[in-house]
Amino acid sequence: MHSRRLAKRSILGSRVCAPSVAGDGALLPGVVQAVKQENNDASTGLRRNVYTVLMQDGSLIEYSEDEIVVCPTPMTTKGPLKSSLKQTSCNGLTLPMETQKGETNTLASEPVEDPRGPDCKRTSRALDPEKDNTRSVSLLEQKRKVVSSSIDVPQARKSEEEVDMDKVTAAMVLTSLSTSPLVRSPPVKVSEGSNGSWKDGGCTSSSHSSSGYWSWSAPSDQSNPSTPSPPLSADSFKPFRAPNGPGQADDVIDEPDGSSLLFDEPIPRKRKNSMKVMFKCLWKNCGKVLSSAAGIQKHIRTVHLGRNCDSECSDGEEDFYYTEIKLNTDSVAEGLNGPTPPAPPPAPAPAPSHPPASEPGRPNGGVKSENKLTTPLSRSAPSALYLVHTDHAYQATVPVTIPSSTSFTPSRSASFSVSWQSPPVTFTGSTASPIRSFGEQRPPVSAVLSSPPRVTGSLRKSRGEGKKCRKVYGMENRDMWCTACRWKKACQRFVD
DNA sequence: CGTGCCGGGCT
DNA sequence: AGCCCGGCACG
């Protein structure tokens, strides 16, 4: 677990400057693509890191850590490409100018030696495991700044464990938001070369997040008591993805309590959380549902994006075209076997009106059988969505349109705001044109007024129209009703 | 009038 | 909190 984390927060992707091959002493910018340790001093057992640096000209060169230095300024402040969406400040070593301009943030003043810098712990470990290298330190510090200036991290707090979890959580949010695989693995594709293609750094975030509205109040701080919407569970972060790669360890970590948070809604839910995660293609008129992220990515890549290369040359664009949905296998089963299966609604067009379900974006292994789940359940994507809906009873979800331009490159210079409270995820600027991809998106307005759509006190909730337990099971089978129905409360099972 | 479910009472 | 039910409102 730890080893994984280390890898996750590694220096990979860092911008550095390294002496040119020409040997003229000039320092050329590059991005760390890989790090390996070499045991080149047998006597002392000293190990040194060797960084494989992707140079601006596209060449890959290995340098020892003494040879490279942190690149003082980003080579590019523009054209962050897709990375603009990637709020992964953790991995984000690319930082917007503003952040670097020594704005004194809380952490900057922290002693560098302190390995417990809230957000850089891992980074530091990964970077500088066992030596005291000033350059490394400076690199470190830079990173620290990056991170801390992007995210407001409380300085002193809780136990280390908690801190850890928080970080994990935060990372989760970021990762899921980023919906980018680039974050996970060092890009192999380098062609764009010198300019603006250092997507790996991927975290030019803060400049965009300015308009962003990050409700960090996540699980612990549900500051909006009147919000009926499900709280931000650790799970909810994952949905978007984190299929393969570094995310794994953390996913595992969060799993246990994530599920409990998952349905933390006013309604009691007795049923076990037997969820199945599926990935649905959001491409217009497609709606293909696959059981693995890899599968759906591949599908999108090949079918919609017309790329034939494998995941390695993916630039992550696929991520914007699919969403994760959660199937409550319980309900499904029940529906299928029960007396009167809850017929899926007419399914208004592609209505991923809900943020992709929340379930550990657990790496679903490789490309599994793509049809395996295209069975009863998945075949009807609508029903899947339906189920997703039912889990958020009171969260009147209003399908919305997002202001989107025609650009196909999803997140270029996009700014967005996200509120975990209720669905609103709003985009400004160009977004993926094929349908809304980020789950629920609403017009900015509603995002700002984060108060969820709720029936106000006096207004009685208009009665549901769908079948309810009573109708479905009849009075004689009262024991089959959902508890709410039994108690004459709003039915939970067949939510409209 | 049947039904969904709010509000509130009881345990 | 879990359970139950009177009674209102909606269709």
Judged by helices, strands and strand pairing, the structural class is alpha+beta
H/E series, N to C?
HEEEEEHHHHHHHEEHEHHHEEHHH
Record field, number of beta strands: 10
Helix share bin: 25-40%
Mean pLDDT: 47
Q: Could you give a short account of the major beta sheet?
A: 5 strands, antiparallel
Tell me the distance between the termini.
Answer: 42 Å
Strand order of the largest sheet: 4-3-2-1-5
User: Quick one: overall form?
Assistant: elongated
Biased composition (Low complexity): 205-220
Protein name: C2H2-type domain-containing protein
Biased composition (Basic and acidic residues): 113-134
Subcellular location: Nucleus
Summary tags:
single chain, 496 residues, alpha+beta, SH3 type barrels, 3 domains, 5-stranded antiparallel sheet, 3-stranded antiparallel sheet, 15 helices, 26% helix, 12% strand, elongated, disordered N terminus, DNA-binding
Quick summary:
The protein is an alpha+beta fold. It has helices spanning 2-8, 97-100, 121-127, 134-150, 160-178, 205-209, 234-237, 247-262, 293-304, 329-337, 376-379, 381-390, 444-448, 469-473, 483-486, and strands spanning 15-19, 27-41, 46-55, 60-64, 69-70, 275-281, 289-290, 322-328, 415-418, 425-428.
Write the layout of secondary structure elements.
Elements lengths: L1 H7 L6 E5 L7 E15 L4 E10 L4 E5 L4 E2 L26 H4 L20 H7 L6 H17 L9 H19 L26 H5 L24 H4 L9 H16 L12 E7 L7 E2 L2 H12 L17 E7 H9 L38 H4 L1 H10 L24 E4 L6 E4 L15 H5 L20 H5 L9 H4 L10
Helix pairs in contact: 1-3, 1-8, 5-8
The structure holds a DNA duplex (11 and 11 nucleotides).
